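## tool: complex_structure
## caller: assistant
## args:
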Amino acid sequence: MIYKMTRRAALAGVASIAMIAAGATSALAEGWKPMKPVEMVIMAGQGGGADRLARLFQSIIQKENLASMPVLPVNKGGGSGAEALRYLKDSEGDAHKIMATLNSYYTTPLRTDIGVDIEEFTPIARMALDTFVLWVNADSDIQTMEDWVAAVKASGGEWKMGGTGTGQEDSLVTAMLEKEFDIKVTYVPFKGGGDVAKNLVGGHIDSTVNNPSEQMGFWQAGKSRPIAAFTPERLEVFPDVPTARELGHDIVYWMQRSFVAPKDMPAEAVAYYTDMFQKLSETEEWQTYTKDKALMADFLSGDELQAYFIEERDKHAVILADMEGDGSS
Amino acid sequence: MDTLALLADGFATSLSPLNLMIVILGVTAGLFIGAMPGLGSVNGVAIVLPLTFIVPPSSAIILLCAIYYGAMYGGAISSILLGIPGASTAVATTFDGRPMAQQGKAGLALIAAAVASFVGGTISVLLFTLFAVPLADLALAFGPAEEFALVLLAFTTFVGLGGDDKLKTIIMICLGLVLSTVGLDLISGQPRLIFGDMPGFYSGISFLVLAIGVYGIGEILYTIETSRTAPQVTPARITLRELGDGIKTMNKMWRTMSLGSFLGFFVGMLPAAGATPAALMAYGIARSTSKEPKSFGKGNIEGVAAPETANNAASTGSLLPMLTLGIPGSPTTALLLGGMVMWGLMPGPMLFIEQQDFVWGLISSLYTANFAAVAINIALIPLFVWALRMPFTVLCALVMVLCIVGGFAPSQKMHDVWLIAGFGVAGYLLRKADYPLAPLVLALVLGPLMEKSFRQTLISEQGDILAFIERPLSGTFIAIAVLFFALPLVKYLRKGGARSIAPAE
Amino acid sequence: MLIADRVIAIAIMALSAYFMWHAAALPIGWNGMTGGPGGGAFPFWLSLLMLSSAGAVLVRSIMQAPSSQHFFDSQMLRSVIAVVVALFVTIALIPVTGAYVALPLFIFWYLRIYGGHGWLLTGILTVATPLFLFFFFEVTLKILLPKGVTEPLFLPLYAMFF
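## result:
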């Protein structure tokens, strides 16, 4: 690794002919290109929402020929992403590794001490923000947020709220709801969003805060009902569903879908990947996908992205502190 | 009747020359990927998924199905020839497949697996064609309590396996279950049993690591030690006539195979359960209903046929919740689901209404792939059997290299390779001391599902343990499970062996 | 035979105790608030059952009459140990020298030195194995194997095949 870096540094000032001699394929004035397949580390296991999205990116990159080397997804979902974070930390200066993140990027280092400081990582690009919506089974009588709160209160703490693992996004939104309405629910953790969606439709749980992409199929079939969206504005696909903010409850929560790279990735490589994702965000496939799945395609990169990460991490620290406080009571 | 016309259309597409070539290519590739210890259908499908944008969607589906089926068939090959299950679905196939190979009947075992897989695939595609839509609701009725009851049932069809030492069986089941809890506790979101914060354990201990360790490395070490005194493995031969005889033998197993198919399809259809419990239950039922249960585990051909019909039927069954509910039952179907989303299809209840040509095209591709897989598999059997005739030291060296690489490939962690070596040595010693290894591996596979669903149910029901019995579906399963558990126990007690079954506490 | 049985039973008991110690870091009782058992309950109580079962095996073996049968075949045990050591050395070498040096070395050792096969067969397999691995895993399946210090040698190959 060190050998390669010094060689590249030496080459920086030399003519491009020398670069071809060094074995870099079609080295143009533009500069850096990956010299070996790029590892795309995924902070989640195979088959989940994050994994599927990462593989969608891989497919678009391959189809549109956005990278000169293949991009290879590798799942390191252990410990809610702790495994991936540690792995990235150990790959300091590596120019051939990028990581697809979700909100466990902040929450995991906050919840358990794994010796990772996300400020050290190099931000690449934020591709999208996923949204959260409160859902109930279509057979239920609940039509509005007020009905929901009343039903939860009436159940005396036995209201079953399904979601992904404790400490992950769904449980945070649930905790925010509990705090806002001063209610208590029974939180049932499931392995993934799809599992949660199915259990809602099957009547095994009473409500969820699924991402729209996870409930879309059931919603279209008339089996589940959106109650309120936790976004600043109404979602295009559900024009009739009010936001929590409209109803006077300031709950807004996003799931970010971004890419980061190890600490000290060479600047040329950072520029290369940022450019690659920028192009990706402009492709037709991506545009259609975000629209269908009610994702907010909100591209962000560089220092702005880093500032966003840090701000979000601080917000999550507060939410988590609130939640743990409740947990011990 | 509309269905039939659509299915016919689907067949017309999948039988075009280009698509036939894709099927043959895909099945062959899948076969070899599946036959590698450590690699399975999920690897094959993941690799070709991005390629599917280059060919038209209908051909892409066919390619994916071909690889899926090819890998399912391939899994049986490594189970039988090397005794290493390539995927958890093929564990049950090793129980009798491996002994058959050791008796020089590898060819027959492979034929049995191929024919059984074909039968399972065929019956399940028929069931799918007829009942896909109404059955989707049944899958929804499965909540955590039902999942738990089902896993318990899968387990009890195995407890008291053969003539193994009961105490040692209990130890191995417990060890497997404890190892299955390593990693992250989903319910509390906390890491547990990571042994002094080793990042390698964050993602838990995967089935493949344990299976490659104990069945791959452990088995080789055991064979090395016993190779001086014990008779060598009988070299396998295969002739055309044996092939014909093999297929004739299969003719007598209709009961086992149809039972396996139905069971496989229905269990496979349930999200979260999938093909592994289906194969185990099919094996357990075949053994307990057989006229000569003693011969199971010693190379009974029905012990190969039962799990193979079931796991193939289950792989078709697991497409059902994926298509009708948008819930993948396995990592492979999750990837297929991802592929569909990329083609702009929306899996879920509306798919069968809005995208009928896609659905039936998929079904007919499955069928074509199944047919191609059985043909190619049988054609390649002589090659596989020939590979077994290599000198033992050559085979050992190559298998060990495959174990190392196959252990590394899925997770890309050296940690897993070390674990494989460790499990290999431990498995060798345990086997020498007559500890049964199958319960260990099975407990590791079923453990996570069992614990998760058990705790989910108790959380939902506010800690009320009676919930398992009160719910009609789970109550029925538990009743059957108790029956299965009690039967061997009663037999055992009657024989007067009560002394050694009670743990000395 | 019996001694080995006892040693293994004691090892399992020690392992169970070790598991119990780690499992106890999480709640092992009935977690009243959320309902159902805590995160450590499953591993803790199962380990306890394992511990007591292994204890029973130990007691049983002590009460049994001694047998003269040996646990290991002493002559072959040396082969087993040689293979295990070679395996561990190979695995340790992989991150350093890369899979494409360590694995052929293992094949060479196993076939030529341990197995006593001829130079021709050894040579063919030593060369063919890494070639097969490269084309099957890296080129076809796009699964990269560890390269260690040999990494720079692979850059032209990547340029050629990807």
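## assistant note: The first strand of chain A starts at residue 38 and ends at 42. The longest helix of chain A spans residues 302-328. Handing back to user.
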